[in-house]
From TrEMBL:
The keyword Magnesium does not apply. The lineage of its organism: Bacteria, Bacillati, Actinomycetota, Actinomycetes, Streptosporangiales. This is Iron-sulfur cluster carrier protein. Residues 1-49 form the MIP18 family-like domain. Belongs to the Mrp/NBP35 ATP-binding proteins family.
Protein backbone atom coordinates (compact mmCIF):
# COMPACT_ATOMS: atom_id res chain seq x y z
CA UNK A 1 0.00 0.00 0.00
CA UNK A 2 3.06 2.24 0.10
CA UNK A 3 3.10 4.37 -3.01
CA UNK A 4 6.26 6.35 -2.34
CA UNK A 5 8.66 7.49 0.38
CA UNK A 6 10.65 10.70 -0.13
CA UNK A 7 13.40 11.58 2.36
CA UNK A 8 14.62 15.16 2.44
CA UNK A 9 18.25 16.05 3.36
CA UNK A 10 17.19 17.45 6.75
CA UNK A 11 15.19 14.36 7.78
CA UNK A 12 11.80 15.48 6.46
CA UNK A 13 10.01 12.35 5.28
CA UNK A 14 6.97 12.30 3.02
CA UNK A 15 5.14 8.96 2.82
CA UNK A 16 2.44 8.34 0.23
CA UNK A 17 -0.01 5.58 0.99
CA UNK A 18 -2.64 4.00 -1.21
CA UNK A 19 -6.01 3.40 0.42
CA UNK A 20 -7.99 0.50 -1.04
CA UNK A 21 -11.15 2.61 -1.32
CA UNK A 22 -11.76 6.35 -1.23
CA UNK A 23 -14.00 6.33 1.83
CA UNK A 24 -11.70 4.00 3.80
CA UNK A 25 -12.79 4.15 7.45
CA UNK A 26 -9.17 3.43 8.49
CA UNK A 27 -7.67 6.54 6.87
CA UNK A 28 -7.00 8.40 10.14
CA UNK A 29 -5.63 5.30 11.79
CA UNK A 30 -3.37 4.59 8.82
CA UNK A 31 -2.09 8.18 8.89
CA UNK A 32 -1.30 8.14 12.63
CA UNK A 33 0.21 4.62 12.60
CA UNK A 34 2.43 5.50 9.64
CA UNK A 35 3.51 8.75 11.26
CA UNK A 36 4.46 7.15 14.57
CA UNK A 37 6.26 4.22 12.88
CA UNK A 38 8.35 6.47 10.65
CA UNK A 39 9.12 8.90 13.48
CA UNK A 40 10.91 6.11 15.35
CA UNK A 41 13.47 5.77 12.57
CA UNK A 42 16.73 7.48 13.63
CA UNK A 43 17.40 10.70 11.72
CA UNK A 44 13.77 11.45 10.90
CA UNK A 45 12.73 14.92 11.93
CA UNK A 46 9.23 15.41 10.44
CA UNK A 47 6.76 13.04 8.82
CA UNK A 48 3.95 13.89 6.45
CA UNK A 49 1.55 11.31 5.10
CA UNK A 50 -0.35 11.72 1.85
CA UNK A 51 -3.16 9.42 0.90
CA UNK A 52 -4.10 8.24 -2.56
CA UNK A 53 -6.64 5.63 -3.70
CA UNK A 54 -5.88 2.38 -5.54
CA UNK A 55 -7.14 1.74 -9.02
CA UNK A 56 -9.32 -1.31 -9.70
CA UNK A 57 -6.29 -3.19 -11.04
CA UNK A 58 -4.12 -2.31 -8.04
CA UNK A 59 -6.86 -3.53 -5.72
CA UNK A 60 -7.08 -6.82 -7.62
CA UNK A 61 -3.29 -7.23 -7.52
CA UNK A 62 -3.28 -6.66 -3.77
CA UNK A 63 -6.00 -9.27 -3.26
CA UNK A 64 -4.05 -11.77 -5.34
CA UNK A 65 -0.91 -11.05 -3.33
CA UNK A 66 -2.78 -11.51 -0.07
CA UNK A 67 -4.11 -14.85 -1.27
CA UNK A 68 -0.52 -16.04 -1.88
CA UNK A 69 -0.53 -15.19 -5.57
CA UNK A 70 -3.53 -17.42 -6.23
CA UNK A 71 -5.95 -15.40 -8.33
CA UNK A 72 -9.51 -15.73 -7.06
CA UNK A 73 -11.45 -18.14 -9.20
CA UNK A 74 -14.14 -16.54 -11.24
CA UNK A 75 -17.74 -17.59 -11.04
CA UNK A 76 -18.35 -18.85 -14.57
CA UNK A 77 -22.06 -17.97 -14.44
CA UNK A 78 -21.27 -14.38 -13.53
CA UNK A 79 -19.26 -13.74 -16.69
CA UNK A 80 -21.08 -11.38 -19.02
CA UNK A 81 -21.19 -13.85 -21.90
CA UNK A 82 -22.25 -16.90 -19.84
CA UNK A 83 -25.03 -18.81 -21.57
CA UNK A 84 -26.19 -20.54 -18.38
CA UNK A 85 -29.58 -19.43 -17.13
CA UNK A 86 -29.56 -19.07 -13.36
CA UNK A 87 -32.77 -19.23 -11.37
CA UNK A 88 -32.76 -18.47 -7.66
CA UNK A 89 -35.81 -20.17 -6.18
CA UNK A 90 -37.14 -18.08 -3.30
CA UNK A 91 -40.09 -18.19 -0.95
CA UNK A 92 -41.35 -16.12 1.93
CA UNK A 93 -42.38 -18.83 4.35
CA UNK A 94 -40.73 -22.21 4.82
CA UNK A 95 -42.51 -25.42 3.91
CA UNK A 96 -44.31 -24.07 0.85
CA UNK A 97 -42.58 -26.64 -1.35
CA UNK A 98 -39.68 -24.58 -2.67
CA UNK A 99 -37.25 -27.52 -2.58
CA UNK A 100 -39.81 -29.93 -4.05
CA UNK A 101 -40.47 -27.53 -6.91
CA UNK A 102 -36.72 -26.94 -7.46
CA UNK A 103 -35.95 -30.66 -7.59
CA UNK A 104 -38.83 -31.50 -9.92
CA UNK A 105 -38.04 -28.61 -12.24
CA UNK A 106 -34.39 -29.70 -12.33
CA UNK A 107 -35.29 -33.34 -13.07
CA UNK A 108 -37.79 -32.26 -15.73
CA UNK A 109 -35.25 -29.96 -17.40
CA UNK A 110 -32.62 -32.72 -17.40
CA UNK A 111 -35.16 -35.16 -18.89
CA UNK A 112 -35.86 -32.57 -21.57
CA UNK A 113 -32.20 -32.83 -22.57
CA UNK A 114 -30.70 -29.85 -20.77
CA UNK A 115 -27.53 -29.84 -18.68
CA UNK A 116 -28.69 -28.96 -15.20
CA UNK A 117 -27.05 -28.11 -11.88
CA UNK A 118 -28.62 -27.41 -8.49
CA UNK A 119 -27.06 -25.46 -5.63
CA UNK A 120 -28.83 -26.28 -2.41
CA UNK A 121 -28.26 -23.06 -0.51
CA UNK A 122 -31.10 -23.68 1.91
CA UNK A 123 -28.79 -23.59 4.89
CA UNK A 124 -31.24 -24.74 7.52
CA UNK A 125 -33.48 -26.96 5.41
CA UNK A 126 -31.07 -28.51 2.90
CA UNK A 127 -33.10 -31.36 1.47
CA UNK A 128 -32.23 -31.39 -2.24
CA UNK A 129 -29.83 -34.39 -2.16
CA UNK A 130 -32.43 -36.59 -0.47
CA UNK A 131 -35.21 -35.43 -2.79
CA UNK A 132 -33.10 -36.16 -5.88
CA UNK A 133 -31.71 -39.41 -4.50
CA UNK A 134 -28.07 -38.22 -4.41
CA UNK A 135 -26.07 -40.68 -2.34
CA UNK A 136 -22.50 -39.82 -3.34
CA UNK A 137 -20.41 -37.14 -1.71
CA UNK A 138 -18.48 -34.51 -3.64
CA UNK A 139 -14.89 -35.43 -4.52
CA UNK A 140 -11.84 -33.26 -4.97
CA UNK A 141 -9.75 -33.24 -8.12
CA UNK A 142 -6.73 -30.95 -7.79
CA UNK A 143 -8.37 -27.96 -6.18
CA UNK A 144 -11.76 -28.32 -7.84
CA UNK A 145 -14.79 -29.89 -6.18
CA UNK A 146 -16.59 -32.41 -8.36
CA UNK A 147 -20.31 -32.43 -7.63
CA UNK A 148 -22.15 -35.74 -7.36
CA UNK A 149 -25.14 -36.19 -9.60
CA UNK A 150 -28.42 -38.06 -9.73
CA UNK A 151 -31.13 -38.11 -12.39
CA UNK A 152 -28.60 -36.34 -14.65
CA UNK A 153 -28.59 -33.34 -12.32
CA UNK A 154 -25.36 -32.15 -10.69
CA UNK A 155 -25.92 -31.20 -7.08
CA UNK A 156 -23.97 -29.40 -4.43
CA UNK A 157 -25.49 -28.87 -1.01
CA UNK A 158 -24.55 -27.27 2.27
CA UNK A 159 -25.42 -30.62 3.84
CA UNK A 160 -22.51 -32.29 2.00
CA UNK A 161 -20.04 -30.19 3.98
CA UNK A 162 -21.38 -30.71 7.47
CA UNK A 163 -20.96 -33.77 9.67
CA UNK A 164 -24.05 -36.00 9.85
CA UNK A 165 -27.24 -34.03 10.27
CA UNK A 166 -25.53 -31.27 12.23
CA UNK A 167 -27.36 -27.95 12.06
CA UNK A 168 -25.53 -25.25 10.15
CA UNK A 169 -25.00 -22.24 12.35
CA UNK A 170 -23.11 -20.11 9.91
CA UNK A 171 -23.30 -16.37 9.98
CA UNK A 172 -23.60 -14.05 7.00
CA UNK A 173 -19.94 -13.82 5.92
CA UNK A 174 -19.50 -17.60 6.13
CA UNK A 175 -22.63 -18.19 4.11
CA UNK A 176 -21.38 -15.74 1.51
CA UNK A 177 -18.04 -17.53 1.34
CA UNK A 178 -19.70 -20.95 1.10
CA UNK A 179 -21.94 -19.78 -1.70
CA UNK A 180 -19.00 -18.26 -3.52
CA UNK A 181 -17.17 -21.57 -3.24
CA UNK A 182 -20.18 -23.50 -4.51
CA UNK A 183 -20.26 -21.28 -7.55
CA UNK A 184 -16.55 -20.81 -8.26
CA UNK A 185 -14.72 -23.89 -6.93
CA UNK A 186 -17.20 -26.54 -8.03
CA UNK A 187 -16.59 -27.96 -11.47
CA UNK A 188 -20.02 -27.57 -13.10
CA UNK A 189 -18.92 -27.93 -16.70
CA UNK A 190 -21.13 -26.29 -19.30
CA UNK A 191 -24.58 -25.93 -17.83
CA UNK A 192 -27.73 -24.82 -19.60
CA UNK A 193 -29.37 -24.01 -16.31
CA UNK A 194 -28.45 -23.64 -12.67
CA UNK A 195 -31.18 -23.69 -10.05
CA UNK A 196 -30.47 -22.35 -6.59
CA UNK A 197 -32.67 -23.41 -3.71
CA UNK A 198 -32.51 -20.43 -1.34
CA UNK A 199 -33.52 -20.46 2.33
CA UNK A 200 -36.98 -19.02 2.95
CA UNK A 201 -37.23 -15.27 3.53
CA UNK A 202 -35.06 -12.34 2.61
CA UNK A 203 -31.90 -13.40 4.35
CA UNK A 204 -28.19 -13.09 3.85
CA UNK A 205 -28.13 -15.77 1.16
CA UNK A 206 -30.54 -13.90 -1.10
CA UNK A 207 -28.35 -10.82 -0.83
CA UNK A 208 -25.20 -12.85 -1.49
CA UNK A 209 -26.78 -14.35 -4.60
CA UNK A 210 -27.59 -10.86 -5.79
CA UNK A 211 -23.96 -9.80 -5.25
CA UNK A 212 -22.34 -12.90 -6.71
CA UNK A 213 -24.75 -13.47 -9.58
CA UNK A 214 -26.50 -10.23 -10.42
CA UNK A 215 -27.96 -11.80 -13.56
CA UNK A 216 -29.73 -14.59 -11.65
CA UNK A 217 -33.47 -14.46 -12.14
CA UNK A 218 -35.73 -14.99 -9.17
CA UNK A 219 -38.46 -17.60 -9.16
CA UNK A 220 -40.93 -17.16 -6.33
CA UNK A 221 -42.77 -20.15 -4.86
CA UNK A 222 -45.84 -19.61 -2.71
CA UNK A 223 -49.04 -21.37 -1.67
CA UNK A 224 -52.57 -20.14 -2.43
CA UNK A 225 -52.89 -18.90 1.15
CA UNK A 226 -53.09 -15.12 1.29
CA UNK A 227 -51.09 -14.95 4.54
CA UNK A 228 -48.23 -16.81 2.79
CA UNK A 229 -48.63 -14.59 -0.25
CA UNK A 230 -47.83 -11.42 1.69
CA UNK A 231 -44.58 -12.92 2.97
CA UNK A 232 -43.68 -14.24 -0.48
CA UNK A 233 -44.25 -10.81 -1.98
CA UNK A 234 -41.89 -9.32 0.56
CA UNK A 235 -39.24 -11.94 -0.32
CA UNK A 236 -39.72 -11.26 -4.01
CA UNK A 237 -39.59 -7.51 -3.70
CA UNK A 238 -35.95 -7.71 -2.56
CA UNK A 239 -35.38 -7.91 -6.32
CA UNK A 240 -36.28 -4.24 -6.63
CA UNK A 241 -33.39 -3.39 -4.33
CA UNK A 242 -30.94 -5.77 -5.97
CA UNK A 243 -32.11 -4.93 -9.52
CA UNK A 244 -32.71 -8.56 -10.36
CA UNK A 245 -35.43 -9.85 -12.60
CA UNK A 246 -38.28 -11.93 -11.25
CA UNK A 247 -39.04 -14.55 -13.85
CA UNK A 248 -42.40 -15.46 -12.30
CA UNK A 249 -44.40 -17.02 -9.48
CA UNK A 250 -45.31 -20.67 -8.99
CA UNK A 251 -48.29 -21.47 -6.81
CA UNK A 252 -47.63 -24.80 -5.14
CA UNK A 253 -50.20 -26.92 -3.28
CA UNK A 254 -52.81 -25.05 -5.34
CA UNK A 255 -55.57 -27.62 -4.77
CA UNK A 256 -56.17 -31.29 -4.03
CA UNK A 257 -58.17 -33.43 -6.39
CA UNK A 258 -60.38 -35.71 -4.32
CA UNK A 259 -59.35 -39.28 -5.14
CA UNK A 260 -62.99 -40.40 -4.80
CA UNK A 261 -65.05 -37.82 -6.62
CA UNK A 262 -62.47 -35.71 -8.50
CA UNK A 263 -63.70 -32.56 -6.78
CA UNK A 264 -61.06 -29.85 -6.46
CA UNK A 265 -60.54 -29.06 -2.80
CA UNK A 266 -58.80 -25.76 -2.12
CA UNK A 267 -56.99 -26.87 1.03
CA UNK A 268 -55.02 -23.65 1.43
CA UNK A 269 -57.61 -21.30 -0.08
CA UNK A 270 -57.07 -19.68 -3.44
CA UNK A 271 -55.63 -16.68 -5.19
CA UNK A 272 -52.26 -16.46 -3.40
CA UNK A 273 -50.10 -17.07 -6.47
CA UNK A 274 -51.95 -14.49 -8.56
CA UNK A 275 -51.87 -12.03 -5.65
CA UNK A 276 -48.07 -12.34 -5.38
CA UNK A 277 -47.65 -11.97 -9.15
CA UNK A 278 -49.89 -8.88 -9.21
CA UNK A 279 -48.26 -7.36 -6.14
CA UNK A 280 -44.76 -7.84 -7.54
CA UNK A 281 -45.83 -6.49 -10.92
CA UNK A 282 -47.07 -3.37 -9.15
CA UNK A 283 -44.03 -2.90 -6.94
CA UNK A 284 -41.43 -3.66 -9.61
CA UNK A 285 -43.21 -1.92 -12.47
CA UNK A 286 -42.54 -4.90 -14.77
CA UNK A 287 -44.81 -7.81 -15.57
CA UNK A 288 -44.31 -10.76 -13.19
CA UNK A 289 -46.37 -13.67 -14.49
CA UNK A 290 -48.01 -16.51 -12.55
CA UNK A 291 -46.16 -19.36 -14.27
CA UNK A 292 -48.37 -22.16 -13.04
CA UNK A 293 -50.33 -23.87 -10.28
CA UNK A 294 -49.05 -27.19 -8.97
CA UNK A 295 -51.67 -29.30 -7.20
CA UNK A 296 -51.15 -31.21 -3.98
CA UNK A 297 -50.19 -34.78 -4.76
CA UNK A 298 -49.40 -37.36 -2.13
CA UNK A 299 -47.08 -39.06 -4.61
CA UNK A 300 -45.07 -35.85 -5.02
CA UNK A 301 -44.36 -35.94 -1.29
CA UNK A 302 -43.57 -39.66 -1.42
CA UNK A 303 -41.22 -39.07 -4.36
CA UNK A 304 -39.43 -36.40 -2.33
CA UNK A 305 -38.91 -38.79 0.54
CA UNK A 306 -37.67 -41.63 -1.65
CA UNK A 307 -35.48 -39.57 -3.97
CA UNK A 308 -37.59 -40.24 -7.07
CA UNK A 309 -38.96 -36.93 -8.38
CA UNK A 310 -42.58 -37.28 -9.48
CA UNK A 311 -41.91 -35.73 -12.90
CA UNK A 312 -39.81 -38.82 -13.69
CA UNK A 313 -41.69 -41.56 -11.85
CA UNK A 314 -45.19 -40.40 -12.88
CA UNK A 315 -44.80 -37.91 -15.70
CA UNK A 316 -48.53 -37.93 -16.48
CA UNK A 317 -49.69 -36.99 -12.95
CA UNK A 318 -51.30 -33.56 -13.08
CA UNK A 319 -48.65 -31.94 -10.86
CA UNK A 320 -45.94 -33.48 -13.07
CA UNK A 321 -47.59 -32.17 -16.22
CA UNK A 322 -47.73 -28.67 -14.72
CA UNK A 323 -44.11 -28.79 -13.49
CA UNK A 324 -42.86 -30.09 -16.83
CA UNK A 325 -44.73 -27.35 -18.64
CA UNK A 326 -43.22 -24.70 -16.34
CA UNK A 327 -39.73 -26.21 -16.83
CA UNK A 328 -40.14 -25.95 -20.57
CA UNK A 329 -41.43 -22.40 -20.37
CA UNK A 330 -38.52 -21.31 -18.16
CA UNK A 331 -35.97 -22.58 -20.63
CA UNK A 332 -37.90 -21.53 -23.68
CA UNK A 333 -36.98 -17.92 -23.21
CA UNK A 334 -33.37 -16.95 -23.86
CA UNK A 335 -31.25 -15.46 -21.12
CA UNK A 336 -31.86 -11.75 -20.66
CA UNK A 337 -29.35 -9.35 -22.11
CA UNK A 338 -28.76 -7.65 -18.78
CA UNK A 339 -25.04 -7.17 -18.22
CA UNK A 340 -24.07 -8.78 -21.53
CA UNK A 341 -21.93 -6.93 -24.03
CA UNK A 342 -23.74 -6.44 -27.30
CA UNK A 343 -20.52 -6.06 -29.29
CA UNK A 344 -21.82 -3.00 -31.04
CA UNK A 345 -19.34 -1.02 -33.09
CA UNK A 346 -20.09 2.54 -34.10
CA UNK A 347 -20.09 3.07 -37.84
CA UNK A 348 -19.17 6.19 -39.78
CA UNK A 349 -22.20 8.01 -41.13
N1 LIG B 1 -47.41 -30.20 -4.39
C1 LIG B 1 -47.19 -30.93 -3.30
N2 LIG B 1 -47.98 -31.99 -2.96
C2 LIG B 1 -47.76 -32.72 -1.84
N3 LIG B 1 -46.77 -32.49 -0.98
C3 LIG B 1 -45.93 -31.47 -1.24
C4 LIG B 1 -46.09 -30.64 -2.42
N4 LIG B 1 -45.10 -29.72 -2.42
C5 LIG B 1 -44.36 -29.97 -1.30
N5 LIG B 1 -44.85 -31.00 -0.61
C6 LIG B 1 -44.36 -31.53 0.68
O1 LIG B 1 -44.38 -30.46 1.61
C7 LIG B 1 -43.26 -30.52 2.48
C8 LIG B 1 -42.46 -29.23 2.39
O2 LIG B 1 -41.92 -29.14 1.09
P1 LIG B 1 -40.45 -28.61 0.81
O3 LIG B 1 -39.48 -29.21 1.76
O4 LIG B 1 -40.24 -28.76 -0.64
O5 LIG B 1 -40.68 -27.08 1.19
P2 LIG B 1 -39.66 -25.88 1.29
O6 LIG B 1 -40.45 -24.67 0.94
O7 LIG B 1 -38.44 -26.16 0.52
O8 LIG B 1 -39.31 -25.87 2.81
P3 LIG B 1 -38.04 -25.19 3.53
O9 LIG B 1 -37.63 -24.00 2.71
O10 LIG B 1 -38.58 -24.85 4.87
O11 LIG B 1 -36.98 -26.24 3.54
C9 LIG B 1 -42.46 -31.74 2.04
O12 LIG B 1 -42.81 -32.81 2.87
C10 LIG B 1 -42.92 -31.99 0.61
O13 LIG B 1 -42.83 -33.35 0.26
Amino acid sequence: MVKDVAIGPDGDVRVEIYLTVAGCPMRDRITSDTTSAVKQVPGVSTVSVELDVMSEQQRRDLQTKLRGNQPEREIPFAKPNSLTKVFAVASGKGGVGKSSVTVNLAAAMAAQGHKVGVVDADIYGHSVPRMLGVTDRPTKVADMIMPPSAKDVKVISVGMFTAGNAPVVWRGPMLHRALQQFLADVYWGDLDVLLMDLPPGTGDVAISVAQLLPSAEILVVTTPQLAAAEVAERAGSIASQTHQRIVGVIENMAYLTCPHCDERIEVFGSGGGQAVADGLTRSLGAKVPLLGQVPIDVDLRVGGDSGEPLVLSEPSASSSVELRRIAKELLGTGRGLAGRPLNLTPVAR
